[in-house]
Write a structure and sequence with these properties.
The structure holds two protein chains of two kinds. By secondary structure, chain A is mainly alpha-helical. In chain A, 69% of the residues lie in helices and 0% in strands. Chain B is of the alpha+beta class. The chains are: A mainly alpha, B alpha+beta.
Amino acid sequence: MNNAVVQNVIRGVAFILIQVLILKQMEINSSWLHFMSILFYPLFIILLPLRYSTISVMVIGFFTGLIVDSFYHSMGIHAASCVFLAFIRPFAFTILSPREGYSVDLSPTAHKLSFPWFVRFSGLLMLSFCFFYFSVEAFTFAYIGQILLKTIVSFFFSMILILAFMMIFNPKE
Amino acid sequence: MASFFGNFSRFGSVLVFLFLELICLFLIVQFNQKQRDIWFYSGSLISGKFLEMSNQAGNYFYLSSVADSIANENALLLEQITNDKSLPLLIFSDTLEVQIDTAQTVRYELLPSKVINNSINKNRNFFTLDKGSADGIAPHMGIVTPKGVVGIVRQVSDNYSVAMSLLNSQMRVSVAIKRTGYFGTMSWQGKNPLVMDLDDIPKHADLIVGDTLITSGYSAIFPPGLQLGILRDFKIEPGSNFYSARVELGEDISRLNYIYVLKHLEKPEILELETSIENE
């Protein structure tokens, strides 16, 4: 168990706790925006180091999602979304690849790469994640309008939280 | 660059992705009531659609047997009408009400059959029926459809028979003009499959374009009064005592499908009588 793995495990546990203990309670108590879910824990998967293969990231995402699901009583929905997020992460890397490329031991943080790059990177992934999540939750495209509304609102608030976190803590790894 | 994304090939990661998503799908449907309802509702919609489609396809294959049974039923009904001696003989259509003295009514059995091979492009055309001697068909039986006469049976095997089409240069049909009763002979010259020639109508007969032509009944093959077609045009060749006319056939033989074979029930009796005179 090297340092990076321990750090990632701690970060994963912390993010999941923030999600299920704080954000979920907010969601339940906020009657004023019932179609909004602040999704913060996907940041854990987004920040996983580049050297992890897509398959291992997907497996990590699967179990992360299952844990979150067990708190949300929505078995499989978060897991499906996390696997999807892990699957499209390499495509986001490819699309947003900087001119000099990536170095092997990189974590996709604002500290290692630029802050604007991280905004684009996390924005792309979170938008996909939110859309996938609400699609799976609705389980039908019959209410596509509602899905899109939820996606945009939740994406907006989730991004505020994620970017605030990155600005405040600015993790290296 | 590429080395980042793959200790595993992209193909492998797609497989793992699909595998994990399938597990998630299973979990979602298994443990979430709302999604479960949607899943099974959509499932029933889709399976319902498939069942409907397969049902329609099945109906399509079923059609031919339905048509067969309807043809049998029609034959039975027409037979009853034809053979009911208390009724005036009324064959095939309302427009053709041929009344014959009930004493003259001959008994015919109608055998429904299907044309399985047909030609119209030769000088001597034949068609094949899917029934033969096993079903009671014998040579020299007439073949008709509700719209008119179409041919005569020539060769019969156990399960099939070959019939000479009206569109055969050797075919001669004795016909009568329904309105006036003059009779002539109809034959085919090998050109238009919808048109036949009509000869031997005496020139004092009064013809009108559109006259209905019926079988004359001067043979045991066809009962009198079956519809054949309508008179299309006519002329008298110089020096001739007979009309040369053309007849438009009622039935389009080029798309023959279901037909009836006419079995004359009293034919053996007639033949016996006729041969007894020859032998005298």
